[in-house]
Amino acid sequence: MEIELFDLGILVGNWESISLNPTVMIHRNGENHQLSIIYMNEATKQASPSTYEIQEDEQGYFVYLNGKRSSLTYCQRLDMLTIATMGDYMRN
């Protein structure tokens, strides 16, 4: 399978899950890009982010979520981000 690499800079911004998973933010931190998942505490209405470094290898981009590798793919035609364990996200 041919992996289509892309510039992570096009992912910078806020992404909203189409299946009601937590919102994610992608941002630069120096030379690296990071993915933050914004968890909402329903009781207190407090948002708490968890941040992960986006890594790259010959299979493409990925993050480690709870110790599991989760690949990141992007469809430029639909402007849709897919996080393997969390589903599809549309730009917010």
Summarize the structure.
InterPro entries: DUF3876. The chain has 92 residues and is mostly beta strands.
Q: How would you sum up this structure, described in words?
A:
- This protein has strands spanning 13-17, 23-29, 32-40, 47-53, 55-57, 60-65, 68-75, 80-83, 87-91.
- By secondary structure, it is an all-beta fold.
- It has a single domain, classed as Lipocalin.
- Strand 1 (13-17) and strand 2 form a beta hairpin.
- The protein starts with 12 loop residues before the first strand and ends with a strand.
- The mean pLDDT is 92.
- It comes from Bacteroides fragilis str. 3988T(B)14.
Identify the notable features of this structure and list them briefly.
mainly beta; Lipocalin; 9-stranded antiparallel β-sheet; 9 strands; 59% strand; globular; DUF3876 domain-containing protein; DUF3876
Question: How are the elements arranged and paired?
Answer:
Blueprint lengths: L12 E5 L5 E7 L2 E9 L6 E7 L1 E3 L2 E6 L2 E8 L4 E4 L3 E5 L1
Antiparallel strand pairs: 1-2, 1-9, 2-3, 3-4, 5-6, 6-7, 7-8, 8-9
Class derived from helix and strand content? mainly beta
Strand content: over 45%
Under the CATH scheme, which class? Answer: Mainly Beta
Largest sheet: 9 strands, antiparallel
For the secondary structure, the number of strands is 9
Number of helices: 0
Protein name: DUF3876 domain-containing protein
Pfam families: DUF3876
Organism: Bacteroides fragilis str. 3988T(B)14
